[in-house]
Amino acid sequence: MTCTAEGGPSLTQTSTKTVKLSSGTGGGGEPNNFLGSERCGGMWDNGLWNDNYCEGSNKVICSDVQGQNVSFIFINQSMTWTKAQSFCREHHTDLPSVRTSTENEQIKGLMQSLDVVQVWIGLYRLSWTWVDGSHFNFYYWKTSQPNGSEENCAAAALEEGGKWEDWHCSFKMPFFCYDVPVSKQVVKVKLVKTSSVDLNDPAVLEDLLKQFEQKLKDNSVDGDIKLSWRDQ
User: Fold this and answer.
1) Other CB atoms closer than 10 Å to residue 144's CB: what's the count?
2) How far apart are CA 10 and CA 6, in angstroms?
3) How many domains does the chain have?
4) Per its UniProt record, what PANTHER family does this chain match (predicted)?
5) Which pTM value belongs to this model?
């Protein structure tokens, strides 16, 4: 791994060990998702991370990746996180994904050698998701919500028209459940006896149902298939 800047120092170290890095800005308690709008990650010159408003301007660190070797390049331009990402992807590999404490120290050292206070890195906060994994394309947040860095579950404020608020997941409150509609279809089947099997034998009828279920699955019929006999 090499950290460079135009006219600046060069530091080399190779590492593939992955670690969990703590974050914070002194006593600031980062990430704090201030006003629920800080989704992009930066690094201070003390090596600690913080979340920022993505439309703010910072200097940039880009990365060039060749296998397990990573080069960090300082870009002496201020830009938004999105523009920084586009710049890095156009001219280098990407914004840096800091994989180890060693890589974190190299970026920190590069910043300190150039007297740079803060830069963008490749951290990005993902949006909220539904528990069933479905796409999140409808928003009904209450004003100033979501606003908590540790409030990772949502509730509907019924006194405010059902608008959403973020809450600590350990908080107890009433809840709604829902069921997925089940489609039922009646199909008449005429059984023609071609052998000595007894079509009134429950075991024979159960075996036939299993064969029908497998045929449906083989023909790409999705969902939880449950078949039963109905006397006419």
Assistant:
1) 10
2) 10
3) 1
4) C-TYPE LECTIN DOMAIN FAMILY 20 MEMBER A-RELATED, C-TYPE LECTIN DOMAIN FAMILY 4 MEMBER K-LIKE-RELATED
5) 0.52
**Residue 181: inside a domain:** no
Least confident residue range of 93-97, 117-121, 183-187: 183-187
User: Does a structural domain hold residue 105?
Assistant: yes
**Which is nearest to 58 in space by CA: 28, 84, 85?**
84
Q: Which of 155, 148, 78 is nearest to 119 (CA)?
A: 78
170 lies in a domain? no
Integer Cα distance of 122 and 88 in angstroms: 10
Place of tokens 């080399």: 12
Q: Give the helix ranges, DSSP H, for the chain.
A: 81-91, 101-113, 202-218
Domain that holds residue 113: 2-124
- Count the residues in the chain: 232
- Of 23-32, 83-92, 155-164, give the lowest mean pLDDT range: 23-32
Residue 73 lies in a domain: yes
Q: Is 25 helix (H, G, I), strand (E, B) or coil?
A: coil
Nearest to 169 by CA among 151, 186, 183, 157: 151
12 vs 195: CA distance, rounded Å: 80
Do 36 and 149 touch, CB atoms closer than 8 A? no
Please report, for the chain, how many H helices and E strands are present, in that order.
3, 9
